[in-house]
Amino acid sequence: MLGSTRPLRMPRHPRLTVWLAAVVVGWLVGALAGWWRVPIVAWLPLPAMCAIVAWSCWRTSAVEGLTIPARRLWRCLAVSVAALAAGVVSHMTDALFGPGAPTQRLGAVTMTCYLVVVLVAFWGLLRLPGGGIGGWLMFALDSGAVMVTAVVFAWHFSFRDNAQWKAVSGSMWWPLLVVLVMGCVAVVAFAKVASVGTAHIDRGAMRMFALATAVSATTGGLAPLFADFPYITTAQLSVPVACVLVGVAAERQRRAGGTAAGPRRATRRRWSLVPYTAVAATDTLLLVSGHGSDGRFLAAGAVALTAVVVLRQIVAFAHNNRLLTEVDRARGDLLHQTEHDDLTGLGNRRLLHERITDALDGPDADRVHLVLIDLDDFKTVNDRLGHHVGDELLVAVGRRLDRSAGPDTTVVRLGGDEFAVLLPPGSHERADAAVERLGGELQRPVHAGDYELLVRASLGISDAAGVTEARELLRRADVAMYAAKDRGKQRVARYDATLDSTATEQSVLGAQLRRALDLGELHLVYQPIVALPDGAITGAEVLVRWAHPERGPVPPDVFIPVAERNGLIVPLGEWILREACRQFVAWRGRPGGERLRKVSVNVSARQLREPDFPSAVAAVLAETGLDPAHLTLEITETAVFDGGAALASVRALHRLGVSIALDDFGTGHSSLGLLQTCPVDILKVDKSFIDGIVAGTQQTVVASALIHIAEGMHLQAIAEGVETAAQAARLHDLGYRYAQGYHFARPMPPAALADLLATAATAAATDTGPVAAATVTGGPAAGATVGAAA
């Protein structure tokens, strides 16, 4: 890992390099003390050391996980050290076997090899990405400053007046000076990269390189000091130290392994002290070496002017740096705002898209899971308690999800009452456990405003197997979430391919349903509600049917949920209500119509949550001229279970004079409680309690208890799903006075019901009431008549 602090234990070959370096340095110390003068002892270990380090660099270039630029740099370093080995051999030949041996004179081959060493290493470093054009331009200017300073100081102290050095080196001092300058520039380059860091090379290794080049440049400048020791050269000092440092750097990089070349966090711009140091050093030399008062005055003026310009630049740089810091902070704040939700502080859809994209690019993409969470009936909270309470509820839910999500998990708010949780890679079992934990957290009461609220949520989960785009994973989780809602809300559903076909079919069906409403493919049928025991028609329940031009009849339990989901239930329900009211008024104007006292229309939970639903009902009553007393709206227990806007609508409708019927009574989990909070006039006892009533099963006990409850609360009870005469007789014995079902009549078109009403009126006028009663109470002939009419 980059910047690892674990102890570095060098293998055998780097340790051998250290031992060889110790031998060379030990000989050098003894030679300077005058103990021995056998230079071959110091020369022989140097090529071996270079060969070991070159092999170590080449081996490091093959480390798994290295980026291409890093691999290229290590190969360049291997070539550079190999060139150093060749240069050392050539240098040894010059020193021991050249003219005037032993000598410090460098031949052309030696100088060429040393130049190759510097240039190849420098080239590999320059090819590391980063810095851009501006960064490399600044580096070039810093290098130029170092080069000028190095030339000035080297000329002044080493080459200008050193006659002995001139005699030894002859015309070869210019190449040596170039090597010295290039070494200084290499120090600048390595120091610059090591200070700002890199995404490709281990930081510790870079620092080792900087130290190695610094030693090489420094010892190269010490050559004139050894002019009195012709059997000693600076190579005997610089090569061992540089080889040890480069070998340690290679081993450190090999142990660190490959480093990710991903984007790095932007850091504050640092001042480069290189040009200022060079200017200060040159100015000092100018002042010290000036001749005469006039020369010193001019030198002092030049130095002062330089100091003013440098100071101005530093002030301007500091000011610009403050501005850049403020810009960076503003940019960071803006980026945070674009990726986070203002209300909850969680991430938003954009952040989720980025995190999913990153996860899909990872090695465990197929094991990533996304969970979509939608709060059920959240609109009720806003409508009943106010939007400020709804906002506090969203904030509390977001915090709870964030706390319980676990590490390496992204929690975002997609908008409205919908949240998403991106789980880290893991098995299906681990993801299911996380979803169960999230669901458990949501079931605990949430404090919002002055209320303790119970939150219900539908959760959809999808894994990323076979997914390559973020939007596809989002789509799959969304399909699963809606499947959970279809199964009764407060459920969890996992995505599979069958959900896609179901969702596609429902989407197509929803579009066709909208067209059907516009083209008149929908029609209404009516099932009579009769009095017991004679079967006289007292009302009718309206039911909607769809005659699809291609698919044929589409059952209501198929298209009604689709209408609920896509919102079409609102205009559809208004159309049904208007047609039913208009038809009832028409029946009342025909013979026998006065027998009808009620028309019953089913109302969905979605309609009740509409704020203007009571006003819409009042408008339909006024438009059709129907007395509110003749209209019954049938609702379910689940529609008003949570109270809120739905319960407020029911109360407004009841104040309007409309009767309220609680449909499928007895099948819910809080029916008796609803009777105390919801204004109800009629209980419709579910068919499940009627089927076994003749056999004396538990259904008989329930049916008997329900009629007693209705009588005790002064409510009308209607038994649903009566299919036999025996059931009808038993219900009458238990106290039921109203019923509906196939035993009496199937749902029928308006004209058929009008005919039944007219027949009953004619029979009553001719005093044949019992015959008329038989027509709707289920005799063999009557069943055939009603069936044909339906």
Set down the secondary structure blueprint.
Blueprint: H1 12-32, H2 40-43, H3 45-60, H4 68-97, H5 108-126, H6 132-159, H7 163-169, H8 173-196, H9 203-220, H10 235-256, H11 274-289, H12 292-339, H13 349-360, E1 369-375, H14 378-385, H15 387-404, E2 410-415, E3 418-423, H16 428-443, E4 446-448, E5 451-453, E6 457-463, H17 470-486, E7 492-494, H18 497-519, E8 522-531, E9 537-548, E10 552-554, H19 556-566, H20 569-588, E11 598-602, H21 605-609, H22 613-624, E12 631-635, H23 637-640, H24 644-656, E13 659-665, H25 671-677, E14 682-685, H26 698-712, E15 716-719, H27 725-734, E16 738-739, H28 750-765, H29 769-775, H30 780-789
Parallel strand pairs: 6-7, 9-11, 11-12, 12-13, 13-14, 14-15, 15-16
Antiparallel strand pairs: 1-3, 1-6, 2-3, 4-5, 8-9, 8-16, 9-10
Helix pairs in contact: 1-3, 1-10, 3-4, 3-10, 4-5, 4-10, 5-8, 6-8, 6-11, 8-9, 9-10, 11-12, 14-15, 14-24, 15-16, 18-19, 20-22, 22-24, 28-29
